[in-house]
Amino acid sequence: MPNRHEADRVIHGFPHRATVRASLTAIYRRLSPDGVHRYPSSVTADDVALGDDEDLHLGTQRVARALVRHLRLPEARVVVSFRPMEYAAAVELTAGPEYFVELNDRFRTRRRDIGAALAHEITHVLLHRLGLGLPSTAENEVLTDVTTAYLGAGWLLLDAYRRDGVESQKLGYLTPEEFGYVLAKRAEVFGEDPSPWFTSAVAYEAWVRGRAEAARERTAPPLAAAAWAERRRYGWERRRGRAARDAPYAFEGGAPATGVSFPCPTCLQRLRVPVGRSLRARCGVCGSVLECAS
Questions:
Q1: Which of 3, 265, 42 is CA-nearest to residue 152?
Q2: Greater pLDDT, 193 or 5
Q3: Partners of 282 in the beta sheet?
């Protein structure tokens, strides 16, 4: 996991949009909707907090065990050590039964972020056991952040993003806004509101921006919840049989179009439905039932 201290090096926005979407689809395909719903509650701050008077190594092992339990890895014993290193943390993936995580020495004095660093590395263990991965190393790191956030431990990574007069720090491979987006996707499914958990003002702001992006997808045509102006534009483009370059949907079948494809707002799998009538579409990957005015 990268180790960034300088605030001006933090990338913002949604540069990993395609990989984030592919990751959400992959999670649902590998775990199934029932598997995803085995993670109904996020890990709590109390479970991963180290007190100032708590032994560093014993406390770190306790936090690691809490994250192993949260990610439903009862057989994985995680051995954690500290050493000087370029990155924030690293994990050695073996056949088990033990996994070895190394944390940057700086976490000895930054206890509040140990849970965040461990969450990312222990999610690597989960993905390793599931045999779930994407083609490149960079994509797999994004997948790990997305999985951590979507299964209820990634709010720790976003909250570790701080920028003030005392320190500037960001953990993970997603941008702050992308973390907020994935957390908002989770919130839509499980009815969680992570906003009270953020202790960092800039993390909260990133969550708000990510939530707005997720809400925009929830109200984009051909979904029936789309606003009047969006639906009017959609109807004009449907008659032409060609969507604008920035549109989330694509038409098929000439002019006027006879079909439209669009991403499921839950798992981002592409769906195809006929146009010209209201209908209910069921996503075959996550099981969401969507009201469409196509």
A1: 42
A2: 193
A3: 289
HSE on the CB side for 177, CA within 13 Å?
Answer: 13
| HEC-encoded secondary structure of the chain | CCCECCHHHCCCCCCCHHHHHHHHHHHHHHHHHHHHCCCCCCCCHHHHCCCCCCCHHHHHHHHHHHHHHHCCCCCCEEEEEEECCCCCEEEECCCCCEEEEEEEHHHHCCHHHHHHHHHHHHHHHHHHHHCCCCCCHHHHHHHHHHHHHHCCCCHHHHHCCEECCCCEEECCCCCHHHHHHHHHHHHHHHCCCCHHHCCCHHHHHHHHHHHHHHHHHHCCCCECCCCHHHHHHHHHHHHHCCCCCCCCCEEECCCCCCEEEEECCCCCCEEEEECCCEEEEECCCCCCEEEEEC
Which residue reads 């500290």 in tokens?
82
Give the C-alpha distances (Å, rounded to integers) separating 174 from 221, 264, 290. Answer: 27, 21, 28
pTM over 0.90: yes
What is the per-residue pLDDT across 180-236, written as a single tens digit (0 to 9) for each?
999 999 999 999 999 999 999 999 999 999 999 999 999 999 999 999 999 999 999
Residue written as token pair 């009862």: 74
pLDDT at 6 over 50: no
Amino acid in position 240: R
